Amino acid sequence: MLRLINLSKEYDDKNVIDNLTLEFPQVGFVAICGPSGCGKTTLLNLIAQLTKPDGGRVAFDIPNPKISMSFQEPRLLATRTAAENVNLVLGDKKATLPQAEELLYELGITDTLLYPDELSGGMKARISIARALALKADLYLFDEPFANLDKENVLLCTEVIKKCTSNALTVAVIHDTSLAERIADKVIFLK
Ligand SMILES: Nc1ncnc2c1ncn2[C@@H]1O[C@H](COP(=O)(O)OP(=O)(O)OP(=O)(O)O)[C@@H](O)[C@H]1O
Ligand SMILES: [Mg+2]
């Protein structure tokens, strides 16, 4: 599904990603771990092709794969409700709003009419997860999806992510190494 071939990225003469070659499985849940500043977000941005590499390349074995990403910051639209933020990726039509709401209910969000500034950090994190899951994709990228969540919600979100992405490849940056080892099929450690 996804291969990184001699991938390199530098910022201000610092090699953040240094000649990285990696092969990912076709489907499954892959966690990326490593200390703060080691390049985890940079790597996800390279995979999503939001950042251009300085060397090497990101290769997919299908043409134009559909990629859905949840960012380290939730990036919700302030003028839209929780449900509307999720519905944006479904085409922003009234008919798909129940689908967006259903996904939020699954992730434990029942106050779907609240606006982002009325939500807790953990609620915003789960809305960001829901928005990524609402899209049917070949590759799902999650950057620290569980950073603001308590243990119970981490387990709930893991279950929903795995259910919704069972036919796809999921790559998630997870800060907590022991959690990553518990829930992922494969863990990649970045130095
Ligand atoms: N746009 C940029 N311009 C300059 N330097 C950058 C840029 N983006 C990232 N960096 C640098 O690249 C390094 C890796 O950053 P990155 O955000 O990928 O780390 P991270 O592993 O995701 O960290 P964290 O766990 O804190 O989120 C850091 O030293 C950072 O300062
Ligand atoms: Mg990061």
The gist of it:
The chain is α/β, with parallel strands linked by helices and 191 residues long.
Strand residues, percent: 25-35%
- Protein structure class: alpha/beta
Number of strands: 8
Q: The CATH topology, please?
A: Rossmann fold
Q: Name the poorly predicted regions.
A: none
In which range does the helix fraction lie? 25-40%
Give the averaged pLDDT, no decimals.
97
The biggest beta sheet reads: 5 strands, parallel
CATH superfamily: P-loop containing nucleotide triphosphate hydrolases
CATH architecture: 3-Layer(aba) Sandwich
The sequence of SSEs as H and E is EEEHEEHHHEHEHE
CATH class: Alpha Beta
Bound molecules: adenosine-5'-triphosphate, magnesium ion
Characterise this structure.
The protein is of the alpha/beta class and 191 residues long. The chain has a single domain, classed as Rossmann fold (3-Layer(aba) Sandwich). It contains six helices and eight strands, in the order E-E-E-H-E-E-H-H-H-E-H-E-H-E. The protein has helices at residues 40-47, 82-87, 97-106, 121-134, 151-164, 177-183, and strands at 2-11, 14-24, 28-33, 55-60, 67-70, 139-143, 169-173, 186-189. It has a five-stranded parallel β-sheet with strand order 5-6-7-3-8, with helices on both faces. It starts with a strand and ends with a strand. The structure holds adenosine-5'-triphosphate and magnesium ion. Residues 11-12, 16, 34, 36-42, 72 line the site of adenosine-5'-triphosphate. Residues 40-41, 72, 143 line the site of magnesium ion.
